[in-house]
Amino acid sequence: MRRRLLSSMLLVAVIAVLLLGVPLGVVVVRLIHDEAATELHSEATRLLIGVEYAISQEQSIDPKQLEKNYPDRYIQVFVQGVAPIAAGTAPPAHRQMTEEARSENGYVRVSQDAAQVQQGVRARLVLIVALILASLGVAVGLAIVTSLRLTLPLQDLARIAERLGSGDARPSRHRYGIPELDRVAQVLDRSAVRIADLLGREREFATDASHQLRTPLTGLSMRLEEIVAAAGEPAIVREEGEAAIVQVERLTAVIDELLAAARRQRHAQAEAIDVDQVLDQQVTEWEPAFRRAQRSIKLVGSRGMRALATTGGLSQAVATLLENSLQHGGGTVTITTTSTEKSVVIEVADQGPGIPEELGARVFERNVSGAGGTGLGLTLARSIVAADGGRLELIKRRPATFAIFLRHAEDDGRYRVVSGPA
Known about the structure:
The chain is α+β, with helices and mostly antiparallel strands. It is 58% helix and 16% strand.
């Protein structure tokens, strides 16, 4: 591109210089010839006036004096009463420039060698050619500077675009002092920010999906282990098989939840659900794991409550709290359900050492974990509950007690718990 731009600018410069230089040269040549002819005619007129005056005063005309007064001229005088006079050296006929002045008494003819005029013409033309070459040199310099100023930013923009295409979505913040290129750079920077945001969301979605799928897969694995362990007892196999089917259905629901979250549609899916049914199902799923850890789950509180949520979302949130208690807590896990004027409250507490003070305020932050975990479970659980219009809070650090606040099924919007993500 630089070569094409440079050649185009040079071509334009050459055409412009030729369009100006050639007519200028022609005009200069004509002016020099006209000036020489005018000068000769003026000299002839002066000579004629001087000769006539000398004759009227009866003075003699000295050819040597004329030659001295008009060097490099050949002078011929033809006036009545005076013999023809010739002064100077006659130039060659093919190079002779002649002008004459006439009156009633005669005429005077003045000639010069045209070579003298041609020498002046050549000197002027050499000057014009020098100016043309200087102009072309300036044009070449400007073309090189301009081509570099345009092509280097374009090459830089091409590198930035290639970097964006390879996944490096860092804004360059480069500006070039050219409005059009600066606008392109700004668009690329905005695109880089958007691409970085999209890539970040995709990575978060992949991480969230893997974490949310891990919990139901863990439950399904526990059921399959129970089936294998009780292979000789058909009743237990049947019971565990039915529980495994429930886990598969829950896994399908989690996948649906993830797809809905990816499409930003979960807000429209909250509906009146039976809280007891969700909690009973979670207790049934997690009892084998707690039993192997020589721990237990206890469900207490008000029964028969209905709340606005999604079955899959609430199941995932409760499962996350139970899994965290299994991994990091201790003793009996108590799930307490209560109802207040504004909310249906589900508390999950255990008898473990609780949450360290330094993590208490950051327990819901992404990638924050106090025991080598992923740091995603509570973050996702809080976002899932918030998407259903509820709230997940840590209400007590020691022992660790979490509470899920949901809207009543008959809530008309007056006591909306949250209006956005927690």
